[in-house]
Amino acid sequence: MPETQNVYEIPIGPIHPALKEPVRFTFQVEGERIRAVDVRAGFAHRGIEFMGMRRNLIQTLYLSERICGICSISHPIAITLAVERAAGIEVPPRAQYLRVIFSELERIHSHLLWAGVAAHELGFDTLLHLTWKVREQVLDILEELSGNRIDYAIPIYGGVRRDISPEQIPKVEAMIRYYRGLLEELVDAFLRDPSVAARTRDVGVLTPEEADLLCAVGPTARASGLSKDVRQDRPYLVYGELGVKAITPRDWGLEPRGDVYDKAVVRLLEVGQSLDLIETCLYEMPEGEITSFPKIPALLAHLKKAEGEGLGWHEAPRGEVIHYIRLEAGVEEPVAWKVKAPTYSNLMSWVPMFADQEIADIPIIAASIDPCICCMDRVHMVRDGSPATLLKEDLLRLSREKTERLTGHPSPVTRHGGGL
Amino acid sequence: MILKTLFSQLLTKPATNRFPAKYMPKSVLGFLSRVKEGKATIVPPVPVPPRFRGKIAYSREKCIGCQLCIRVCPAKVIEFLPEAKKIRMHVARCTFCAQCVDACPVDALAESGGFLLSDTDRSSAALTVQ
Amino acid sequence: MTGLHLLWQAAAVLVGGGLLGLVYKGFDRKLAARMQARIGPPLRQPFLDVGKLLVKESVVPRDAVGWLFKAMPFLAVVASFTVLLYLPWGPFPAVLGRYGDAILVLYLLAVPALAMALGGFASGSPLATVGAQREIVMLMSYEFPLAVAVVGVAWRLATLGGSPAFSLAAIAASPLWGQVGPLGVIGLAILAACLLIVTPAELSKIPFDIPEAETEIAGGLMVEYSGTYLALFYLADAAKTIAMAALVVTLFVPYGIAGLLGLSGAGAQAVDLAFHLLKIFVVMFAAVTTVRVAMARLKIDQVARGFWLQITAVAVAGLVLLVLDRMVAG
């Protein structure tokens, strides 16, 4: 890129009021226009996979929960699904419904949190305080049901650890009514406010082709019009029976443009979808056991004997999270554990989104993919410092090569003969 | 529109809960000592629901020293005392997941709601359960 | 004797104006917080803030242009406090009213913004440079509607025989609302609305706080200022708030109520002064506090375009209505 005299280099991060988590942007700007951006992550890397492979599976479960505070149940759900597939553990139906209820509660809290953060990035602190005040209701319900506002410690291999008692159900229903009544007001405040629209319409556009090429997931991809939702594409738990459909801006009557406004539309509509899902689950949940291994020593023994590998996936509020686990008989620790967080897939979407935007748009574009850097952070191996573009085929090939290196035999995908 | 919300909020009580005091006192330790003398009051915290994840309670008599809790604890909170065959928990490290409570075969451990656990010494008596 | 008298009055206005600025800032923060369902800081918080800043270390960055960096806060505070000496305070005429008029006030109001921009450029930080660039663009954007509003009122008064033209005392003494026809009333209302829109831009408050955007450029042109220098900018902002609100009140609603209440003498003066301060508070509440909690921050190109095209067009329309009113009145 030719360096003219007017091009400044502005560093944003790793510590900056716009960023909730450390990531380093280096923008080449001309006046207020962004000409190029370089993203460098790695500041929140904690070596969690390394730690997880030195602890037994139950300890690793709680470690996985603390990969992220906002998507705090997504990682335990993915790892429990992975281990249950690897060790051949069945999950009773009531536990599956309970896992879905907690996941959807988390989705509501996460999207409301995002709405507040996005408002703050726009300088609209009133909406930040409003959405976070409103979010207190779902956090109170989570505290009532699980004992904690964040990091609920609910999934365990074979089921869940706590049940919803009949006394608690009216409280959950009251929360659903409260949010249903408020949703219109929130949509009004966010999507019909002229100053918000002025700041988010046609800002940070991600075309569907770019979203597809860069493997974007979650609301980032759905806002561009892609109908991509793990709950719909590869149903797990009871999502298949619930018939979840991916939400795109078309569900609100808009033609998807892939800008920040569309991402807000998708997330707010998903709050409504989650409320419906929770209500359905509460009614349809069958009676029964909440875990197939009520005794911990039995669970530990079964896990120690288990041999095999498993893949667990979940639609976290930010997109698809995948955990891979490989167990060996007689060894308590997982032999291999890999986490692919949704932000890892969405990270590269930043580059086309920032092209030709203004400095003033930096915070809202950065926040629009709902980055959870702590989920995503990994160590980078830089080959020779030269920039390169990796497309979907390259990433797939590299991931499969790594899988083969980890597992010692051809990757499960090629073995089962199909694309994702 | 937003103006309606703004003005209605102007006229209602703020949503903030005022624990422990409405405004930051000039000196926190001074404030706490005044509370001890009865010259100031702490606004009570919002009550926690039952089964809130707080400090773990331990019944020493029931404990059989099987060390199952130690095996499942993700944060290495529990220390085994071999001579007495009992345990000691260091609350400063605890994540309150209560997996130890689930694991214990004789129900020697239980969840309690205690969450006001600040201290200046991480090995103080308040932060050690034995 | 008059020299000493002038000095006392000036001291009273400067000190009183400064204290009033900080008190009103406290109210602004408290009311904004309550509108957001928060408790907010205690009313004395701005005093605590200034006191804290004065005892903190004032860091001058290595890459900064030292003398310019250190001088600009002083220039800003001097200019904004000086404006207070040229504004009438209810029943009391402006301390230096004989030496300066509305045009001088307009110029003086631009100086603190320029000082902040120069300070930003002198800070040696890319974020401050961006903030300073934005401040200059904002200054160029809102000056025109501001000037049109002031000139419109002053000109119309001059045509009605009020003199000297542009003298704030004359403008305050004979409010135009009763002296113009219906066209003029609409024109004046339009100019008043434009001035109210310019007020948050002048004071760098949301939606126009772009030069200091917290989430975008981490404080913008203020990013490198700390300690005493930041305290001075803070005081300058407080004084400028009072000055701008007082200007709006003097131009458009300079009425006193002592006459209505049938008071006279010192009682009348006190009541009129209190009423004047109340009006300043209402202007600040409407144009600054409510607006800054009800909107998102706009972008600099949106603001520049908005002021140069739409707001200027509206202001000129108001001026044209005043001209038509003059022609109709004969």
How would you sum up this structure in a few lines?
The complex is a heterotrimer of chains A (420), B (130) and C (330). Chain A is mainly alpha-helical and 420 residues long.
Order of strands side by side in the largest beta sheet of chain A?
1-2-3
- The share of residues in extended strands of chain C comes to under 5%
Instruction: Output the CATH topology of the largest domain in chain A.
Output: Cytochrome-c3 Hydrogenase, chain B
Residue share in helix of chain C? over 70%
Mean pLDDT of chain A: 87
Notes on the structure:
The complex is a heterotrimer of chains A (420), B (130) and C (330). Chain A is mainly alpha-helical and 420 residues long. Chain A is built from 19 helices and eight strands. Chain A has two domains: 48-355, Orthogonal Bundle (Cytochrome-c3 Hydrogenase, chain B), CATH 1.10.645.10; 385-420, no CATH class. In chain A, the strands form three sheets. Chain A has a three-stranded antiparallel β-sheet with strand order 1-2-3. Chain A has a three-stranded antiparallel β-sheet with strand order 6-7-8. In chain A, strands 4-5 form a two-stranded antiparallel sheet. The N and C termini of chain B lie far apart (57 Å). With 330 residues, chain C is mainly α. Chain C has one domain (48-329). Chain C is built from twelve helices and no strands. Chain C is globular, with a radius of gyration of 20 Å. Chain C starts with a helix and ends with a helix. Chain B binds chain C through residues 2-3, 6-7, 9-10, 12, 14-16, 18, 22-23, and chain C through 31, 33-42, 290, 293-294.
Notable characteristics:
heterotrimer; A: 420 residues; mainly alpha; Cytochrome-c3 Hydrogenase, chain B; three-stranded antiparallel sheet; 49% helix; globular; B: 130 residues; alpha+beta; Alpha-Beta Plaits; 2 domains; two-stranded antiparallel ribbon; 23% helix; 13% strand
Write the layout of secondary structure elements.
The complex is a heterotrimer of chains A (420), B (130) and C (330).
Chain A: E1 7-12, E2 24-30, E3 33-40, H1 48-52, H2 57-65, H3 74-87, H4 93-121, H5 125-146, E4 155-156, E5 159-160, H6 169-191, H7 194-200, H8 208-213, H9 218-223, H10 230-233, H11 239-242, H12 260-284, H13 296-305, E6 308-316, E7 319-327, E8 336-340, H14 342-346, H15 350-354, H16 362-368, H17 373-376, H18 392-407, H19 412-415
Antiparallel strand pairs in A: 1-2, 2-3, 4-5, 6-7, 7-8
Chain B: H1 2-11, H2 28-37, E1 56-58, H3 68-72, E2 78-81, E3 86-90, H4 99-103, E4 109-111, E5 128-129
Antiparallel strand pairs in B: 1-4, 2-3, 3-5
Chain C: H1 2-35, H2 45-55, H3 66-85, H4 102-121, H5 126-159, H6 168-173, H7 182-202, H8 214-217, H9 227-252, H10 258-261, H11 265-294, H12 300-329
Helix pairs in contact in C: 1-3, 1-9, 1-11, 2-9, 3-4, 3-9, 4-5, 5-7, 5-12, 7-9, 7-11, 7-12, 9-11
